[in-house]
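Input sequence (331 aa), recorded before submission:
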Amino acid sequence: MTTFTGTESGKTAPVGERTAPEPKPLTVGKQSTGTLMGLWFVVLGPFVALAVAIPLLWGWGVSWIDLAIAVVMYNVSGFGVTVGFHRYFTHGGFRAKRWMRVTLAVAGSLSAEGSVIQWVADHRRHHAFSDKEGDPHSPWRYGTSFGALMKGMWHAHVGWMFKRDMTNPERFTPDLLADKDIRRVDNMFGLLFATTLLAPAIVGGLVTWSWQGALTAFLWGSLVRIGFLHHVTWSINSVCHVWGERPFATRDGDKAANFWPLALLSMGESWHNLHHSDPTCARHGVMRGQIDTSARLIWIFEKFGWVDEVRWPKRQRLEKKMSGKYDRLRA
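Predicted structure, token format:
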């Protein structure tokens, strides 16, 4: 005898004939004209700023105030991306208190790399299809020849953002869509974008009590700082999927690699091979000598009790993923 079960529509269907629900679409259309205009601004703006700032060095120089503002904003927004957007919201590498969740979402938004939900959706999609069809920014998209790889590097670094279908948040970030706090921060992205541009100029102007101080702080603390951080982040998508060491096994086709020259500037994100081998691990630099300042910050947060259930690396787990020619684990 066939067993039947009810459905939401009131109809019944044999249990043996039921099928899994269709997955939600991968993408949800093109990005808006406003988004494209903002993208052109953050890509070209830093170069314009450099063209203006460098000649000004001869007359005005760059002050310690400008440098301090740039360094502080770089670290706040950078760690907001690496610790917040990436290791926490995308991969769940630890659990955070409510105020810390909101703080990380706001700090990451100050990077001007996109709203928290869209950033996480893109990155989860990247991991689901790493270096395969469906990956939004694989440098191997066009093939393996030199010309194809150079074209792919441009695509992975910045080109993918200008001509793309938007990743579907309902498919990749239902957890964040269900979080009222994070949705609110996501909706405030325009305001936070304006804040990350204007706050350095306001601080520089008030500290020096001059329009000159406001201008130089805007050039170095806003535009140049944003551009520098963006190119470091984008290099993880491009450079770290082409060049570097691969001591840990990843899925077939995944070419994520460790690229040590970017370790400090990327706050540990360029230890990319381990990350793709064990995405939820809160520390990416797991071998001796691999500096990972994002992991150190998470450790500090844990000591203060602001985060818990941190997924620290386990030696036995790492050894199973590791090539036999490497033996520099510190876990």
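Checked by second reader. Residues 70 and 225 are 6 Å apart (CA to CA).
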